[in-house]
Amino acid sequence: MNLRLIQFASPREIRVARAAGQYVWDVSGKRYLDFYTGYGVAFLGHRHPKVMQALKEQLDRYVTIPPSFETDVKDECLNQLAKILPQHLERVYFMNSGSEACEAALKIARKTTGRKKVLAFVNSFHGRTMAALSATWNPKYREGFEPFPLEVVFSPFNDPSAVDDKLNEDFAAVILEPVQGEGGIVPATDDFLKAVEKRCREVGAVFIVDEVQSGFGRTGFIWAHQKSGVKPDIMTAAKAIGGGYPASILAATEQVASKLKETDHGSTYGGNPLAFAAVKAAVEVLIEEGVPQQASEKGAVLGELLAEVVEQNRGVFRQLRRAGLMIGLEMRTQPQPFIRMLQNNGLIAFKAGLTVLRLLPPYLITEEDIRTAAETISRTCVEFLAQKPKPSESQG
Ligand SMILES: *Cc1c(COP(=O)(O)O)cnc(C)c1O
Q: What's residue 77's pLDDT?
């Protein structure tokens, strides 16, 4: 038998030898600047030494002890997380992926309100498991999977009055990303987040903020929604929080968590000792190295250079959108061929939505990396335009 993977993503055609910090090397020794970081997971850089050290030490103690046991690594992880979680979210549960965390958040909203409807937004992404998928907008991801376990109504993003119109006492929850990631890097406005929060309070719906991609310092705030001062009832996080190790969390208010009982949820691997060790170390790095501040400053510098690139290449790009180091360049075409050219030129990026070139660089990029990235994108534009016939005026 020739066993092969089920390919849900097109092959990258790089044979990886090694990764460290912001770089990936292939087996021929070619070095790539990684602004993909495995969907944004390696935001602290590949193999951050503090995270690796914590994992190695934990491997020598115990690996398979569920969180119902008392362990130092659990206590230390909770102590660290307590320093960075929104202070009104005093209860936390550990899982393994972003989808699982969103799935659990929706289950909890359903259970604690006794309601079945959920309000989500156009271009949202909350994962691929059935409840998370029911709140994910992209028709291509949803096609063929109906009926969904939740009745989800999609409302336009950044439109407060649409939320006022749609949300009523039938709704268990509203779920949103404070910066839409997969949907094309679209930051929520402060007014929108505040209006959603207010309407949730009026109708008694659970306000769920999905920080799986936007959280952990990437946007310049520890959690992106904190920019607007809103207080969600539940927050989910994953991707960057384990410093490269797979882990996710759901954080909830005491008011929500107190309504749950033992049989309501569970996870075999959630809160395993390696995840606790990795999250603990990752939070220490975030605090000690001022990661949100660095993301804010480096994002501003990179953003300025990219704005120039967009300005000089109006035939390739329409718009730059950015929150810290969460960056989207809206293209005039499907981004895949451009992404492949970038990769050949030494910069690994990926797409978002149908037409967005997405960059999720790690916080530790240097000024030189920032210049290299902007130059590589600029140079690739020239190459791209030389190969492609110019898009006609009617396209944009
Ligand atoms: C990636 C992502 C998810 C799903 O996370 P997985 O770990 O792939 O299950 C959910 N929500 C958002 C906002 C994401 O970016």
A: 98
Q: What is the pLDDT of residue 396?
A: 40
**Calpha distance 253→231 (Å, rounded):** 10
Would the CB of 133 count as within 6 Å of ligand 1? Answer: no
Residue from 3, 320, 64 nearest 73 by CA = 64
Regions in the chain scoring below 70 on pLDDT: 388-396
Rg of the Cα atoms in the chain: 21
Domains of the chain are 16-34+291-386 (3.90.1150.10), 49-288 (3.40.640.10)
Q: Which ligand 1 atom is at minimum distance from the Cα of 102?
A: 10
CA atoms within 13 A on the CB side of 322: 24
216/208 Cα distance (integer angstroms): 17
Report the separation in Å between the CA atom of 43 and the middle of ligand 1, taken as the mean of its atom positions. Answer: 15
Contacts of 321 (CB under 8 A, 6+ apart): 184, 185, 186, 187, 327, 328, 329, 330
From 41, 43, 180, 182, the mutation candidate for ligand 1 (largest count of ligand atoms within 8 A of CB) is 182
Burial pattern 180-213, b for ≥16 Cβ within 10 A else e, equals bbbbbbbbbeeebbebbbebbeeeebbbbbbbbb
Query: How far is residue 78's CA from residue 93's CA, in Å, rounded to a whole number?
Result: 10
Tell me how many degrees the CA angle 234-39-81 measures, rounded to the nearest 5: 40
Say if ligand 1 is within 6 A of residue 181 CB: yes
Question: Among 31, 35, 24, which residue's Cα sits nearest to residue 352?
Answer: 35
Ligand 1 atom at minimum distance from 181 CA: 15
